[in-house]
């Protein structure tokens, strides 16, 4: 028998419903693809004015406790922001900030109070977890934290650090005396030249390599022991949930682009959407979307209900595995079904496939998560 | 919540105490596969028992033999029946298609005449939509119904009639006006008795070698005028409404299982027990990956059902989950059952009747029977068209 | 780099071409599905008159050396019989006999001379290899051979013994002092009640469980040591080749049935073959057929060319993996694409799917062979 | 055999000795992706060098600059080029589509005028079949060619023109008679110069962000009367014949690679080198199973090529292998390249220009570029129709 019993919990409050409506309208109006394409070419990759509006709407501090200036709505509410954000390919430092918040929530009160109120007011955060071998195991980080007196020295290389150039805070994982630990670095403490811009498959992201060679962090900026494990687990949970939610949105966006084209373009005297060779795979995309959204909102419901870590882990990995494959399929087919136009820069289909590939390889792809699920469920 | 929990416990206890003993013959897996008298009688007796205990038609009006209780109670019964894997109740077409239809649009006389017998399994129902030359294309029906005085005279043939041998009534789509402005307008809907002269039912042998479907031949079969449901020419609309019950797009079903629910957990249990390549199938990493894929898919569909109850979470395409349900569910099951054979390695090649076959060859038979669901009631290809056109708004073929 | 270098060898002689034409005509005329269906219901499962004709054509002794009364054309020629046999779903004891022949070819001269001339003249042979756990590893047989004096006693249970009731000779694998060995049993030596008819998914086969409890076999009927390993290897090679060839034929048969129906049946006012939802998967079946045939005739070419055992093993496993999946797909789609008719006993589609499933699970399915290929090639 | 073996060794030695040095920029992967002048010049120089060594057009007549030797020698050269992974030669449309066409049906004057420049890369060729509004539906071409005295006046636009910026000639399908009895009969075929007034070539930016295709606009472009190939109204037949060369259904190509051949072995090599989940990708059982699937498929297609040379082994459907070749090959490659990204785990998310990207992001770019082959020259969906209808005889859509 399986260790984890699968439930069908699905809760969605009136408040969440309103948030979803608001966010949907927000990103629909703020993030048409013309804007997305401009931002792709920009240095920062996001529009600070839009970011400020999001902060003002309270979306930055959504998961921050009220005591730290947030609205304490939790991760489930964050899904309602992430999904439309993915749908309109919006590029903001919101995701990296949410992951930062989740990590710091595991810290002691002092560190929480040192960072979270600022984030609730608009400070940008990010997490530096992955290393160059690309291992998705967040506890395997090789960057070293060496303690001397009331300081720790950080040495090592991190990769795929989102929005690192814009971040006010960076939460960096590593190894302190053989155990996982994390450190919060302020923007000011970042040595010059530590950041190197990376080129991702998804131009709407800004990613950096971070090279640290003995940079000093005060002891009170460290998260260690059980708290470090909790921080990593919270970050992973949030990443799986929010990237899956973004992917659900992305599938919906790709589907919309496809349906629009299939209803417009004519070949051999018929609308191409009338051909089952295109119609049926498009239905498969819809089914992938429906299943993905269901997994995402279910996982959010379990988190909100405070279910066991094991149950949440299973739901999140299922969501990520489902989302990764369905989104990659939707993006791939979006290009193919647009024919010659799909092969051009101007066609939006490519934007979705590139997002899908980034999403697939961030925090574990479907094969990775299915292996973990097999361990949990079989 | 606690009251419902109590009810759930009561239902479970009753089911455990009253489930019929395992028969010494292989039971059918769905109501579409009832092929022998002893199978039928075993299942009809079970339906009667369940009904008499008050666990069927719980949300139907008391006036017609129902329980007059909230739907959630019947949902609980259905869930417990599935969980405890009790046998299904055979009068599915009556309970879940014709019954809700009659309750929704039938006359008071129709309700009084038909509903009680549906619940008690006294009156078994069958469906006469498909014809030999028109599989999924229902609007092409050519079975004729011609007025003769107060009566109707039927001529033609219907096919893939489940329970045709046992049915007292048929929901029948027939052409009353071949000259109507379009082919839809010429169709009418009947609640037709099967026990009149001129109705001949022939069993159809299935690809498994067993029986279960029938073909019904009408040769100048005379049925009373009041068998017409609704008005002449409304057959297509009523048939489409029937399909909303059949495909669970609309609610109102009497409840009860209509098949032995086989899910991924059953296949997991199989994977733990059987060997491939000399070791338990569940230890093979490729098998494990596939099993998890099935689990994710099954859980995804289950969660779609849960999500569909939140209007705010299906607002963009309200019909998507319900309308894709048959396509998702039946294709998932076909592939899952095919995979269940793979788990058995060399022993996958056994068949019903072989002593060493897993569960008497049930898995192999189930895979073949799974096609009845991917074909019947609109093939998967037709279903995909329906979803593409009605949910996504894609152009017709 | 891979240990085995993949070649593209493809030879097909004039003689083989003539054989293929003859066999194609033979099975087309002898094995219409009406006949197949009659044989399915018959006790023996095959028509002795047809079998005699095949013997007279020399097909029984095709792979038997001339010295033993055969025509020594080898396994490559046998493919030209197996493929059309599969195409017309023909049921004969030819396959089991060929496997028997391949096993005995590894025996010493005395045993070869004792069996093969009779086979060339029409005696039926079969092999008893598989045991109830269904392990495909032919060297893992648990049946025991215990030597006492010039005899060996066989004890154990075998399953999936094709045509055992009709067989003049049975070649039985087992374990002799911890090593694989085989024994040839005459029909006369088979104890009464040793055979129990099994019910296979493919009604065109006759299969038996064989229970031996100390049956005595003379020493000179044993194959042991290196010869036993060679015998098992030859049997496996022949089984993979001929079942793949039969499957290639089966795919072609299923394809023909599908194309015929798609060109005949009308739905929604059009021939159903005009719908891409049916047309495109039918093309996938064709592609599966083409790839399968290519793998099969290539593997036969390597065997005929006397390539290394490793190269032959790789080619055969590729052929079997390709054939198994392509045939199962063709059979599955054949039923689906026939709609309601496909669900009936009368429709031939089911015959192909049932054959496909037997073929898939005989001597290893695609997953099994791919795992071995990974070991050989990665 | 030994003579050919010697030749193979000689070719290999020459290629090894003369292959151009790796450039300090990323080369295109196919002739369709030549997007910058330095890419083009590098490749044109290489074609010239190969031709001057006698390794291109070896089987073409000596009279027009060919080698006049058996085809098998060119086959050996092609195979060695692929094996040694030397750069491709850029004039693919001339060498493999237009060239063989001109040799097959061209006039003596056409052969003399065009063939030598094709081989030497002096005259680059492009293809003007597709139009903005008619992707795979070539017969719908609307680009007009109107007679004016001895000349033709062209108006309209062609799209997806590879090498359009560098081409001296275009094989052009244009409508000469809009009132013909059917849309096929109104088309004519031209060997059209690109360097006349009124021909405007605009680069198209690809989904990768790079360039490589162009759109060609004709505005009252005047070309000489003898640019018409064959007779007026024969355009469709000649275009179809061109496609038999393009899709390698017919032989007679000059040879040389037209792309960097990427195969499963390259992906295997990658799988050995890169890590997923902290260990070499090739150690993951799921990855291994997928890799073997790709190997079986690739080998199957290769063996189809070998089998197609035995008429007795393709007698039932002689066209099946050749006509399905594009569909099989391009879809295999698209999926293979997509999988090559998966091997890289988290690093799969890198792109061209990233320092840590595998081979400079080649794999990611290759996957995106793979769509040019599954879309261009008839989408995979159109290819499947062609195979279904022409090989299997299924009814048209």
Shape of chain B: globular
The spatial strand order of the largest sheet of chain A comes to 1-4-5-8
Element-by-element helix/strand order of chain B: HHHHHEEEEEEEEHHEEHHHH
Spatial order of the strands in the main sheet of chain B?
1-4-5-8
Please count the beta strands of chain A (DSSP E, at least 2 residues each): 10
Briefly, what CATH class of the largest domain in chain B?
Mainly Alpha
**CATH class (first level) name of the largest domain in chain A:** Mainly Alpha
Number of strands of chain B: 10
Based on CA atoms alone, the radius of gyration of chain A comes out at: 21 Å
Portion of residues in beta strands of chain A equals 15-25%
Specify the number of helices of chain B: 11
**Strand share of the residues of chain B?**
15-25%
**CATH architecture descriptor of the largest domain in chain B:** Up-down Bundle
The average pLDDT score of chain A comes to 96
Mean pLDDT of chain B: 94
- Rounded to the nearest angstrom, the distance between the terminal CA atoms of chain A is 8 Å
CATH topology of the largest domain in chain A: Butyryl-CoA Dehydrogenase, subunit A, domain 3
C-alpha Rg of chain B (nearest Å): 22 Å
Fold blueprint:
The complex is a heterotetramer, with two copies of chain A (378 residues) and two copies of chain B (397 residues).
Chain A (H helix, E strand, L loop, with lengths): L13 H17 L2 H9 L6 H9 L17 H14 L6 H11 L4 H12 L4 E4 L15 E5 L2 E12 L6 E8 L2 E8 L8 E4 L8 E12 L3 E2 L1 H38 L3 E2 L2 E2 L4 H29 L4 H29 L1 H4 L6 H13 L4 H12 L1
Parallel strand pairs in A: 1-4
Antiparallel strand pairs in A: 2-3, 3-7, 4-5, 5-8, 6-7, 9-10
Helix pairs in contact in A: 1-4, 4-7, 4-8, 5-7, 7-8, 7-9, 7-11, 8-9, 9-11, 9-12
Chain B lengths: L1 H17 L18 H16 L18 H14 L7 H14 L2 H13 L4 E4 L15 E5 L2 E12 L6 E7 L11 E7 L5 E7 L5 E13 L4 E2 L5 H12 L17 H10 L1 E2 L2 E2 L4 H23 L12 H23 L19 H14 L4 H12 L6
Helix pairs in contact in B: 1-3, 4-5, 4-6, 7-8, 8-9, 9-10, 9-11
């Amino acid at each position: 028998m399986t260790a984890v019993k699968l439930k069908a919990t699905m809760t969605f409050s009136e408040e969440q419903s309103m948030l979803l409506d608001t966010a949907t309208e927000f990103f629909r109006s703020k993030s048409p693809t013309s804007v997305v394409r401009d931002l792709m070419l920009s240095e920062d990759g996001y529009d600070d004015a839009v970011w400020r509006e999001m902060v003002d709407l309270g979306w930055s501090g959504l998961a921050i406790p009220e005591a730290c200036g947030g609205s304490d709505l939790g991760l489930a509410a964050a899904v309602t922001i992430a999904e439309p954000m993915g749908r309109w390919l919006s590029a903001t430092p919101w995701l990296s900030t949410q992951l930062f918040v989740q990590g710091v929530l595991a810290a002691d009160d002092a560190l929480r109070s040192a960072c979270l109120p600022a984030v609730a007011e608009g400070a940008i955060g990010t997490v530096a977890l992955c290393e160059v071998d690309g291992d998705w195991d967040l506890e395997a980080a090789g960057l070293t934290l060496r303690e001397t007196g009331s300081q720790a020295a950080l040495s090592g290389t991190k990769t795929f650090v989102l929005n690192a150039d814009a971040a006010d805070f960076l939460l960096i994982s590593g190894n302190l005396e053989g155990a996982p630990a994390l450190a919060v670095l302020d923007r000011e403490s970042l040595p010059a030249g530590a950041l190197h811009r990376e080129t991702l498959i998804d131009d709407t992201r800004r990613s950096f390599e971070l090279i640290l060679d003995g940079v000093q962090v005060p002891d009170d900026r460290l998260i260690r022991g059980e708290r470090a494990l909790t921080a990593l687990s919270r970050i992973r949970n949030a990443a799986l949930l929010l990237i899956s939610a973004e992917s659900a949105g992305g599938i919906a966006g790709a589907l919309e682009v496809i349906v629009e084209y299939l209803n417009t373009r004519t070949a051999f005297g018929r609308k191409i959407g009338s051909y089952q060779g295109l119609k049926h795979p498009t239905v498969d995309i819809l089914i992938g979307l429906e299943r993905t959204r269901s997994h995402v909102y279910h996982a959010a419901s379990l988190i909100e209900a405070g279910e066991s870590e094991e149950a949440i882990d299973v739901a999140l990995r299922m969501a990520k595995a489902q989302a990764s494959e369905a989104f990659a399929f939707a993006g791939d087919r979006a290009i193919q079904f647009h024919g010659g136009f799909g092969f051009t820069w101007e066609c939006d289909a490519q934007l979705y496939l590139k997002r899908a590939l980034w999403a697939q390889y961030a925090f574990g792809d479907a094969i990775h998560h299915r292996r973990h699920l097999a361990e949990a469920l079989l | 919540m606690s009251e419902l929990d109590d009810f759930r416990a009561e239902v479970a206890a009753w089911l455990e105490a009253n489930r019929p003993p395992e028969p010494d013959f292989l039971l059918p897996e769905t109501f579409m596969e009832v092929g022998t008298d002893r199978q039928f009688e075993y299942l009809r007796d079970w339906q009667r028992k369940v009904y008499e205990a008050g666990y069927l038609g719980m949300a139907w009006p008391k006036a017609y033999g129902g329980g007059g209780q909230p739907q959630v109670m019947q949902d609980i019964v259905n869930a417990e029946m599935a969980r405890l894997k009790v046998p299904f109740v055979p009068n599915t077409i009556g309970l879940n298609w014709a019954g809700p239809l009659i309750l929704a649009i039938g006359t008071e006389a129709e309700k009084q005449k038909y509903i009680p017998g549906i619940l008690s399994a006294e009156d078994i129902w069958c469906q006469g939509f498909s014809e030999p030359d028109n599989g999924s294309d229902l609007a092409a029906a050519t079975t004729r119904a011609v007025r003769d005085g107060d009566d109707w005279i039927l001529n033609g043939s219907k096919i893939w009639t489940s329970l045709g041998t046992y049915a007292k009534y048929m929901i029948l789509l027939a052409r009353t006006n071949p000259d109507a402005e379009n082919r839809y307008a010429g169709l009418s809907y009947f609640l037709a008795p099967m026990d009149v002269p001129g109705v001949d039912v022939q069993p159809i042998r299935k690809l498994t070698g067993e029986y279960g479907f029938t073909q019904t031949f009408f040769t100048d079969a005379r049925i009373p005028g009041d068998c017409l449901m609704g008005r002449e020419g409304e057959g297509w609309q009523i048939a489409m409404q029937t399909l909303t019950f059949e495909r669970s797009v609309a609610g109102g079903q009497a409840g009860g299982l209509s098949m032995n629910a086989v899910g991924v957990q059953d296949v997991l249990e199989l994977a733990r027990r059987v060997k491939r390549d000399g070791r338990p199938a569940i230890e093979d990493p490729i098998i494990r990956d596939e099993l998890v894929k099935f689990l994710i898919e099954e859980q995804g569909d289950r969660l779609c059902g849960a999500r569909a109850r939140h209007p705010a979470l299906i607002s963009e395409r309200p019909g998507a989950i319900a309308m894709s349900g048959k396509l998702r569910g039946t294709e998932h099951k076909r592939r899952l059952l095919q995979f269940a054979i793979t788990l058995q390695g060399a022993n996958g090649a056994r068949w019903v009747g072989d002593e060493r076959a897993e569960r008497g060859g049930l898995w192999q038979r189930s895979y073949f029977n799974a096609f009845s669901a991917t074909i019947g009631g609109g093939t998967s290809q037709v279903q995909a068209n329906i979803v593409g056109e009605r949910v996504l708004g894609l152009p017709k073929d």
